[in-house]
Amino acid sequence: MTLYDDTLLCNFPKCRGKLSGFAWVTACSHVFCDQHGSGEFSCSPAICPACSSALSGKLDIVRTELSPSEEYKAMVLSGLRPDVVLDISARALAFWRYQVHQERMYQEYSLSRADAQLKQMDKVLTQQNQSRELELTAMRGEIASLKKVMDEYKRKYSEVSERLMERNRQYQKLQGLYDSLRLRNMVGTGDKETSHQEHHDFNTGMGRLRTPQRSPQFLTTGQDGVSRFFSCLEQDGAKSFFQFGTPMKDRARTLVKKHQG
Ligand SMILES: [Zn+2]
Ligand SMILES: [Zn+2]
């Protein structure tokens, strides 16, 4: 018992209020406020609400004034022998000492319970922190691996776009070459009809297959013309372009076969 201003507390379990005015003391060394004492001890037989002792004796329960008047203090022990006075005082002090001890036990119990709760909460918090830490580590790992994957995709993307640009350049060169060859074909012969026919065949690509006897005009320039044609292509990196299946490839093959045959 933390004795606030040297005051006892009501022993009723749910009260623990500071005692003042009148208090009810019992033979089992318990004390109650006026409210709980008058309530609990009005019926018979009386039972101590703190320790369940039966209080049937005439002086087992006494309602006492905590701050007695000077007149009462002057008279209450008067006439008694010194040993009786000391005996009464010793018993009253023992009662007080028991109350102090009891309150101290209660406070220690509360403290240990709070301490245990604190430790339990600390343990839970530590476990939660550890699991959060683990989750965080796992997520960091995941982010790192995703970054790696993304970097890999970026690298592939730039490679592919570079290749695409290279193909575009090759295509443009080839297109230019094709246009100039077509132009040569058109102006290089006096036969307007043949020129027109060749132009048409070259555009469709199919006309050539149907009329294998005909040779385009530029091929009639002989070996020199063909080698120039293909050397141009190779210089421009057209070889790699022809590795893809395009109508151009078939057409070039046809041209070569026709010339060799
Ligand atoms: Zn009370
Ligand atoms: Zn009691």
From TrEMBL:
One Gene Ontology term of the molecular function aspect: ubiquitin protein ligase activity
Superkingdom in the source lineage: Eukaryota
Composition bias, Basic and acidic residues: 191-202
Annotated keywords: Coiled coil
Stretch list, region Disordered: 191-220
GO cellular component assignments: synaptonemal complex
PANTHER family reported in the protein's UniProt record: E3 UBIQUITIN-PROTEIN LIGASE CCNB1IP1
Name this polypeptide is given: Cyclin B1 interacting protein 1
Lineage: Eukaryota, Metazoa, Chordata, Craniata, Vertebrata
